[in-house]
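Entry:
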Amino acid sequence: MRTSKLAQIMRIVGTLYLMFSIVFIPPIIVSIIYHDGELTPFLKALSINFITGFVLWFLFRKRSGNFHGKDGFLIIVLFWVSLGLVSAIPFILILHTSIVDSLFEAISGLTTTGATVLSGLDHMPQSLLFYRQELQWFGGLGLIVLAVAIIPQLGIGGMSIYKAEVPGLMKEEKLTPKLTNTVSLLWKIYLGLTIACAIAYWLAGMSVFDAIAHSLTTLSTGGYSTHDESIAYFHSTLIDNIAIFFMLLGGINFGIHYVSFRKHSLLPYWRDSEARLFFIIVIATSLIVGLALLDFNYYQLASDNIENAVFTVVSVITSTGFATTDFSVWPLFLPFFLIVISFIGGCGGSTAGGMKVIRILVLLKLIAREFKQLLHPKGKFLIRLRKGEALPEPVLQSVFGFFSLYILSFIFLLVLLVADHIDISTAFSAIATCMNNTGPALGELAQSFSSLDDFGKSISIVSMLLGRLEVVSILVVLNPEYWRI
């Protein structure tokens, strides 16, 4: 890669840093309101972030030129990795945690994973608690996607970045003719649903602070909470149901939300093949888990078995990670079953993690086609999604390629964690929950990842980034061929 192109990319990264400075302003306001004494650390973090961004922008401000699709991958990777370092500063200054622990917490927030190395949340400063929640909200639809809304001002085309950042299969689809309009529209929907969620939580009995804080991590399907007990702290069935509703909204393609709002109808949710399969998976999995708990009579009240089953399934499959109970101690096959389910994740174009339902749907259709091909060797069978359009072979190959890379990356990271003297079941759940951006693991990591050493935490950080950037972005940049083009 030419030096001039790297300079242009650094200019863009610097500009994005300047934009990210806004993230430190709300915690500063919260610190002032609650007088928690943590104003200075956030002012320092804001200054470091702003100065870094300004220096990068100023040094390379005269660099301009055309960008290609591959350049978006490097911008995304550089921005997310470096952003994690800056985001870790408040944790270091306030909690005096190690760099690795602080980076783990920051990356977990930005990737909306929700895994944590912290405890004693109920006694932490409100500004830091709000900051954790806010990181997940901005990470929900992707900070870069937000930046694309004004990217024309930076002198480059935004589509290459948009493709690299937005999760899911159908990245070429746009809701409006212009990319900037599409991104702005998605964020308006995102913001509107977040406000609605906050109001619902507040009316259900949460304090204003908790309502706003939890709404940020519900729509983003992040799962951070301001309490160690998570949603269980509130002991409210109504709050649980509100969380279920908005977690499901966060796990559905935001394009479907737009179509439903525009047509004033709920039918688009059922007519879309991916959303329909998502609902079917949620219902079927909830039934399996609920019936297993009922059969084992795990909770005294039958309603508690059903309610905890539904909440946990929705929380896991949307990769949120909220908890009303500790599912890691559930009987039979249930804990392992839920970890496996987390690989599915939510819909493409949602804030959820995992491999995405759209890819699972395509894989199922590919398997069905192979069986048909065995029975009818000379037949030609097309795979169709949405409006009866046949998917081209390159798309099918990309889905299979993604699936293969995802599983191979998972196995490689699993081996590394096991080599760190972690038992296989705990390591399996740890890598799964990090790559799928889900949060809760099993065994000694069920409540916190603090028991891992720095090497184990570093592997977990890499897993979270691989999952958030959907594996390909990072692997492309690590490929030596990428730098020779």
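The beta strands are 384-385, 389-390.
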